[in-house]
Amino acid sequence: MSDKVAIVTGAGQGIGEAIAKRLAKDGFKTGLVGRHLDKVQAVADQINQEYGQNTAFAFKADVSKRDEVFAAVKAVTEKFGDLNVVVNNAGVAPTTPIMEVTEDDMEWTWKINVDGVVWGIQAAATAFKGFKHGGKIINATSQAGVQGNPDLTAYGSTKFAIRGITQTTAKELAQFGITVNAYAPGIVKTPMMWDIAHEVGQNAGKDDDWGMDQFAKGIALGKLSEPEDVANAVAFLAGSDSNYITGQTIVVDGGMVFQ
């Protein structure tokens, strides 16, 4: 896959970082996009050190803002001269019981998780058409967007929406040779998840590891996911082996929900 170019949003840590590193390993020039330039730059520096200078490029953007998403795509395409894959990974995951959800909670979560995906799809499709070739758009949904979970009304609603957006735009963009798919992680060992585990452990008078272990219950494989497990699935969707797949959601949760 040499000379292919990918963009990954939310690439400063966790799943996004793992995806960016895996795509670089697979031969992609990679644009790393995030709200905090220092974080995405640190990941880009690691990639450049391992795979050669000019392999990764960091750019600051807030995916909830359409103009910033388009600016990020423009910057990456000007840097590398092409674009083949866009991974709309950036997102937030508030844990809020239904009776505590506020207008601000809904607006904030939807602007980042849903609007960010829509702007990413628009910017990707515009770039692919400009280069006069097809491409691959890969969106982050969640196990919580396949099956409803308690306390995740705000978050889960956005992830269910992303599955619908993926299906709709797959049909719209197929005529241009553009595929649109999604990946649905389960419970992944990310900094955000460790923060939640810490809170669970503290509430029970236990440590962080105990808090994290509570989330492994109900997973068929009996263990939590590593970010690299999710990156492996994204790498498949980004590669040529998935060329005849579009509008689909791949669930990567160790066996939490079954379709």
TrEMBL record:
Pfam families: adh_short. SUPFAM superfamilies: NAD(P)-binding Rossmann-fold domains. Its EC number is 1.1.1.304. The keyword Oxidoreductase applies. NAD(+) binds at Q13, G14, I15, D62, V63, N89, Y155, K159, P185, G186, I187, V188, K189, T190. One of its GO terms (molecular function) is magnesium ion binding. PANTHER family: OXIDOREDUCTASE, SHORT-CHAIN DEHYDROGENASE/REDUCTASE FAMILY (AFU_ORTHOLOGUE AFUA_5G02870), SHORT-CHAIN DEHYDROGENASE_REDUCTASE FAMILY PROTEIN. This is diacetyl reductase [(S)-acetoin forming]. It comes from Oenococcus sicerae.
